[in-house]
Write a structure and sequence with these properties.
Layout (H helix, E strand, L loop, with lengths): L4 H15 L3 E3 L8 E2 L4 E2 H11 L5 H16 L5 H8 L18 E3 L6
Parallel strand pairs: 1-4
Antiparallel strand pairs: 2-3
Helix pairs in contact: 2-3
Length: 113
């Protein structure tokens, strides 16, 4: 058997994440809309953010996405994004009270040819 990064690292990690309840998303799925600058699947973001914050309007959900995008552009090693992610007041990105209300997804990195 040939051992490489896929067999030793990627595939075991994918299997482990799926056992933990994460959902695998394929970059080849045409139904998934991904923002290239942030690598965020926009439809999933909007659905999830509204599930966590039921009173959130579509406009506020888009505004939240824009705020997250700006945080990701900061050159602060992720500090602004971390603060937004763990913020428990205002629009929440993670539901710490009802953890099952969150959605966890992952994708496999694209192969470079």
């Amino acid at each position: 058997m040939k051992f490489n990064e896929d067999s030793r690292v990627k595939i075991p990690t994918i299997l482990h994440l799926m056992r933990l309840g994460y959902n695998y998303l394929s970059l080849k799925d045409p139904a998934l809309k991904r923002d290239e600058s942030t690598n965020i699947f926009t439809d999933i973001f909007h659905t999830s953010i509204k599930q966590i914050n039921p009173a959130l309007s579509d406009t506020k959900a888009r505004q939240c996405f824009d705020e997250v995008s700006l945080c990701l552009e900061n050159e602060d090693l992720g500090k602004a994004f971390y603060e937004k992610l763990t913020n428990k007041s205002g629009t929440r990105l993670i539901d710490f009270e009802n953890f099952d209300n969150n959605t966890f997804n992952f994708e496999r990195e694209a192969r470079r040819v």
